């Protein structure tokens, strides 16, 4: 676990998500299973959902950042499920990139980011969704979405019969920092294509516009690759059009806002 933090340059108090093989293992990693966690796990696992629950006694402090909660997830990728089944335990793991920078969605991204710092890269092809899992804090009532992700907030609310509160309180899960997912170039946000074009025309240097609002699934899938491509092309500024705040738009808006907060040469 210490090596994970060393390789990423990850702060010691920033918790990891524990990946498990099936919903039947939830109780083995939680001190107790809140009803919201049980319902979401039964409905959404395997899938892009992480539930925050009270940690079991055997969960290491280094995994939780010293907190009394742990994030648990059953991934849907067949390669990962095969790995978990062969291993027979939980794998505490973050995204395979340097902390705070753009998340990887291909094995090549991981190789470029981490190089010889890791021993093995398992290539299961490009990430099918692109953005990370939705994180739901099930230790509070009503439950709170701490990080929008692959399962939209509206679907989470419907599964919990509308019992979903606004995110509040301190950072206690991955992706909650104000600045994250940042490329080297500066990211500027716009609410429409027209605004993005006007902003781009007013800026000096190498500037381009990112707009995927016509297809939110495709926007989410390609978002991180687009941010990386902006750096590869040597852009000074990428003006990104924010999607509407529904469905996958929640996650895309969240990632773009945090990329804008952490981007640019000053960071």
Summed up:
The chain has 267 residues and is an alpha/beta fold.
Written overview of the protein:
β6, α7 (153-159) and β7 (164-165) form a beta-alpha-beta unit. The protein has helices at residues 2-8, 26-29, 35-44, 61-64, 78-87, 107-114, 153-159, 193-202, 216-232, 249-262, and strands at residues 17-19, 49-54, 69-73, 91-93, 134-137, 143-147, 164-165, 186-190, 207-210, 237-241. It folds into 2 domains: 2-95 and 132-165, DHBP synthase, CATH 3.90.870; 186-262, Threonylcarbamoyl-AMP synthase, C-terminal domain (Rossmann fold), CATH 3.40.50.11030. The two termini are 26 Å apart. It has 267 residues and is an alpha/beta fold. The model has no long low-confidence stretch (mean pLDDT 93). Helix content is 34%, strand content 16%. It has 10 helices and 10 strands.
Summary tags:
267 residues, 34% helix, alpha/beta, DHBP synthase, 16% strand, 10 strands
CATH architecture annotation name of the largest domain: Alpha-Beta Complex
Q: Treating each run of at least 4 consecutive H or I residues as one helix, how many helices?
A: 10
CATH superfamily of the largest domain: DHBP synthase
Q: Roughly how many Å is the radius of gyration?
A: 18 Å
* Average pLDDT over all residues: 93
Largest sheet: 7 strands, mixed
Strand order of the largest sheet: 4-1-3-2-5-6-7
Task: Give the DSSP E fraction (strand runs of 2 or more residues).
Answer: 15-25%
User: What would the CATH topology of the largest domain be?
Assistant: DHBP synthase
Give me the secondary-structure category.
alpha/beta
Distance between the termini: 26 Å
What would CATH call the class of the largest domain? Alpha Beta
**Domain module count:** 2
Question: Shape, please?
Answer: globular
Q: Spans with pLDDT under 50 lasting ≥5 residues? A: none
How many runs of DSSP E, i.e. beta strands? 10
Helix percent reads 25-40%
Element pattern in H and E? HEHHEHEHEHEEHEEHEHEH
